Amino acid sequence: MKKMTVFFPLLFVCFFIISLISLSWGQIDIPFENILAMLCHELHIPLFADVPFTPEQQAVLYHIRMPRTLVGLLVGAGLGASGAVMQGIFSNPLADPGIIGVSSGASVGAVIAIALGLTELSMFYMPLFAFAGALLAVTLTVFLAMRHGRIPVMTLLLSGVVVGMLLGAMTSGILTMMNEQKMQQYLFWTIGGLDYRRWEHVFLAVGPICGGIGVMLLMARHLNILVLGDVEAKAVGMPVMPFRLFLLIIASLTTATGVCVSGNIGFVGLVVPHMMRMLVGPDHRRLLPASIIAGGTFLVLCDTIGRIIMPPIEIRVGVMTAVLGTPYFLYLLRRTRNMSR
Questions:
Q1: Nearest Cα to 253, choosing from 132, 169, 73, 72?
Q2: For 164, what's the count of Cα atoms within 13 Å in the CB-facing half-sphere?
Q3: Where does 91-198 have alpha helices with state H?
Q4: Cβ–Cβ < 8 Å for 268, 325
Q5: Which of 229, 96, 119 is nearest to 184 (CA)?
Q6: What average pLDDT score do residues 76-104 get?
Q7: Phi, psi values for residue 212, rounded to 5°
Q8: Distance between CA atoms of 55 and 196, rounded to whole angstroms?
Q9: Residue 51 burial (CB count, 10 A)
Q10: What are the distances in angstroms from CA 319 to CA 188, 303, 314?
């Protein structure tokens, strides 16, 4: 218990410092005190009033850095929470939010929006189509896996693989009929990135992601019971099927929202929850909050590193999460294999 009283404040400190660094560092560096002065000025807080700041710094902070950082925090938090729930539902540390075809469905929706030229009419068409595609993928996966009112975990995993392969083939087929410019647009989306995020993306993501996270936090006790197994859960009077399906849908929709505003970003929902489980234990009442804070912090950290490592070139956050997440994933595979011996 003493460990928890130290761990969560430390996690919040890391969250604050990384967010502040993300707002400060870039092609135009803004000193920390200037950022705090602008934030206090905007919130009408009488602090740092004697610290001057320029209109250029104000424009960079409010119109470029802040939306980008907020989208990163929202998407990372949503993926972290969804990954923890998925790993709990499947009782598998290698499970992640894209395991039942969410990412593949979002890719189909995005490529359809690009192929039809809808992205030239409004920035909202691609995320809306991506969200619809992800929702379709989840529905199809659950429909294929359900038998006599039950959803066996292994069948659900296999259905997710099959649906992902089908939707991946559809995406490839549509790409062969697109011109080079539209293919490049899809490529930038599918790699995953936070560049060019605006306040519209923040407003699009904040409701569904915060709502999904809130529901998952409220269901933490029920998830603890589900992890014990179907027999134990039924013994305490829990209707296993409705709760598992409900949590699966909430986690999938939260993931879909994150994917539709940032593109496909891997490893956050896989690495962060497992790492937090090693630090705070398997109790989802602690694991979910830790995964939420750490997920947002990790994604913003990856984005910040991608911006400053090779200036003026920016490495997209989807690449950075893969670079940092792959070694840990290989370690996780090796550790899992050694434990099974």
A1: 132
A2: 13
A3: 102-115, 125-145, 153-175, 180-191
A4: yes
A5: 119
A6: 85
A7: -65, -40
A8: 20
A9: 16
A10: 11, 9, 10
- Quick one: 131 exposed, middle or buried, by C-beta within 10 A (0-12, 13-18, 19+)? buried
Q: What is the pLDDT of residues 174-195, one digit of tens each?
A: 888 888 888 888 887 788 889 8
Taking Cα atoms as reference points, which of 58, 60, 29, 33 lies closest to residue 47? 33
Share of the chain above pLDDT 70, in %: 96
Predicted TM-score of the model (pTM): 0.90
* Helix, coil or strand: residue 198: coil
Kindly report the length of the chain. 341
Q: Tell me the chain's radius of gyration from C-alpha atoms.
A: 21
Rounded CA separation 267/273 (Å)? 10
- In CATH, the architecture of 2-339 is Orthogonal Bundle (1.10)
DSSP string covering 53-110, please? --HHHHHHIIIIIHHHHHHHHHHHHHHHHHHHHHHHHHT-TT--GGGGSHHHHHHHHH
Task: Identify the residue whose tokens are 């490049």.
Answer: 184
Cα separations (Å) of 115 from 102, 103, 104, 167, 176?
20, 18, 16, 16, 10
Kindly report, residue by residue over 6-27, the tens digit of the pLDDT: 889 999 999 999 999 999 988 8
Longest dimension (CA), the chain: 69
The string over 66-101, giving b where at least 16 C-beta atoms fall within 10 Å of a residue's C-beta and e elsewhere, is bbbbbbbbbbbbbbbbbbbbbbbbbeebebbbbbbb
Q: Taking a C-beta distance cutoff of 8 angstroms, is the pair 157, 90 a contact?
A: yes
Pick the closest to residue 163 from 235, 216, 103, 83 (CA basis). 103
Compute the distance between CA of residue 273 and CA of residue 268 in angstroms, rounded to an integer: 8
- DSSP per-residue letters across 33-54: HHHHHHHHHHTT--SSTT----
